[in-house]
Design a protein that fits this description.
By secondary structure, this protein is α+β, with helices and mostly antiparallel strands. The protein has one domain. Helices cover 18% and strands 25% of the residues. A 5-stranded antiparallel sheet has the order 1-5-4-3-2, with helices on one face. The longest helix is centred in the N-terminal third of the chain and has 15 residues, at 35-49. It is flat and about 50 Å long.
């Protein structure tokens, strides 16, 4: 039986990184040559640990009207957020997957160095991983 205290302890646990090298774990200050490479890195990290990612938000440069140039992006675990059920549990056929997960990685464009930099990382999940 899982108690409320067990759930709180689970939320504080870091994922098991024993099968990963230091270069495979996201850290603040990590640099990428493109936004696409940053997305691929986080998706690869997620796959190795057993979760899936999504692009939650992208902000664009408002000074450049001629082109949509992204300046930062947040990549989240797909189980982030909260969804209340509109159907009673007895009649629901699929599970609610939103688990208020806070695992995410933020990247921003360093215009001087022309690269993407990890500005914030949260590695803890509020749910068991599939890995």
């Amino acid at each position: 039986m899982v108690t409320r205290n067990d759930e709180l302890d689970l939320r504080r646990e870091l994922p098991d990184h024993s099968g990963l090298s230091e270069e495979e774990i996201p850290v603040i200050g990590m640099r990428f040559d493109s936004l696409h490479l940053a997305q691929e890195f986080y998706a690869s990290y997620a796959k190795k640990l057993g979760f899936v990612t999504k692009v939650r938000n992208t902000n664009f440069d408002k000074m450049r009207k001629d082109a949509k140039i992204p300046i930062n992006q947040s990549l989240h675990c797909t189980r982030e957020g909260y969804r209340e059920s509109r159907v009673k549990a007895a009649t629901r056929s699929n599970r609610i997957t939103a688990m208020r997960c806070k695992a995410r990685m933020y990247v921003l464009l360093d215009r001087e160095k022309e690269c993407w930099v990890v500005s914030r990382v949260e590695l803890r999940h509020s749910h068991p991983l599939f890995g």
